[in-house]
Write a structure and sequence with these properties.
heterodimer; A: TIM Barrel; 14 strands; B: Elongation Factor Tu (Ef-tu), domain 3; Rossmann fold; seven-stranded mixed β-sheet; 16 strands; 32% strand
Amino acid sequence: MRLSVNLNGLKLKTPLMLASGTWGLGDNIDKFFTKEEVETYIGAFVTKGISVNPREGNPPPRLCETPCGLINSIGLENPGIKEFKAKYLPMLKIYNIPIVVNLHGEKIEEFLELVEALKEEEIEGIELNISCPNVKKGGISFSSDPKAVEDLVKEVRKSWDNFFAVKLSPVGAVFEIAEICQKQDVDAIVVANTYPALGVINLKPLKIIKGGLSGPAIKPLTLRLVYELSQRIDISIIGCGGIISGKDALEYLFCGARAFQIGTANLIDPRNVIKIIEELKTFEI
Amino acid sequence: MHFGKVSIHKRESENIYLLGIETSKEIIKNFQPGQFIKIKINYRLDPLIPRPFTVHAVEENNFYILYQIKGKGTKALSKLKEGEEVEFLAPLGKPFPVLQNYVICAGGIGIAGFGYLLQCANSKNRFKPPDAIFYGARSKSELVRLEFLSEFKIPLEIATDDGSAGYKGFITDLIEEELKKEHKDILACGPLPMLKKIAEIGKKYKVRTYLVMETFLACGIGFCRGCVIPLKKGGYIHLCVDGPTFLAEEIDLETIS
């Protein structure tokens, strides 16, 4: 099958994007791939969520494995936009692939500050994180408030000309927010982030983790969202949820996604990227 | 991920197994004591995440892990048969620090990683042999690989909770007796209560104390930021890339449970 995709101007050699937070900030790519492999298999690199100021993230436990899934509550640990630009972005730029920076803010002003800070950089796109289930303030309130999302994407669109995606939560006013993104000329929506979930670490004394569920367990749920959204709106959809094989990816592409992101699969095996694309290539479609 | 084949899979006690994996020398030559590997278990979706194990020993083109059945990952692993293919990611994490005058303290399955340290120290590379090995378990039946450990001709002090072998009581009591006689650095791996006690002892006798920490981890390579260990000065470090061995004085052990 033909692998290249053009998402409203964002040219991808393959439809595979690395989901935010599952490949750090690119500082370890060279341990697992040659430059040629990166440029052959990875359609676009999506960075870990970047905020204005550094964030140390949530206290442990941050992870809990569930049947066919993984709950995480990382809490957007990141070095902040200044250090990201100075230290990490140059490492990513070695590769001739599009870089999409995932942005996290608690207020519209913070998102705009991040966008402003990235304007002088040669990056291909931004992805707004309005759906992180693991921060007390901010992200999640946007995803449950369509009006707040509308104000946010309108302002960001005004100041950012390149590729602009919004990563949606799979819960809340998903359809309404997707329609808002379409109306405000967002280039693509990522469907979707992790599902709010709870894992029990220990029964007595009770120790729990509240976080976002990812992995094969969520694939049928997100696949349905992608399919139904694609029936109702025309905006490009990037499917994201539980893909760990080429066949999973193909299902997303056939159910309305124009590209896909893989996340948990990277944590199982960093070279799953190659396996997924190689498998995808074998389908005669 | 690398490929290997199960060369030996042997029960060492009721719940502890020795698993040998045959692979290429090219891969094994990069292993250092204290580092770990992640094994994908039977290509299943559940358990989803490959499990981490420290390298217990290396022999020609085989490496060994020593593990205890604790949850569904290790239970699934215990079903592997000799000759079966396994996929693993290695080597991960940082090696043990290179110490001069020191003792090893192992509690239960915490003995696993020290086998390879002893092998390396024995082959006169940069790692030095410890002055003594302190090895504790709940009972005699849970003390494993004693014959292998005795090959290195290093004094071995044993303690069991029930007194079925060696000193009756905690291994930390024996370490304290040793430090009263002579101050030595400590390298410890075992259950959290033991590590907390070792940190206390190390502080009391003002010796450098290193603890091998444990936590659930996902990627094992610094991508996901899931395996954090809290620091006394505030903030976190990541077990998979900064550890698993840490200076006790830097870790906020009080907040870990």
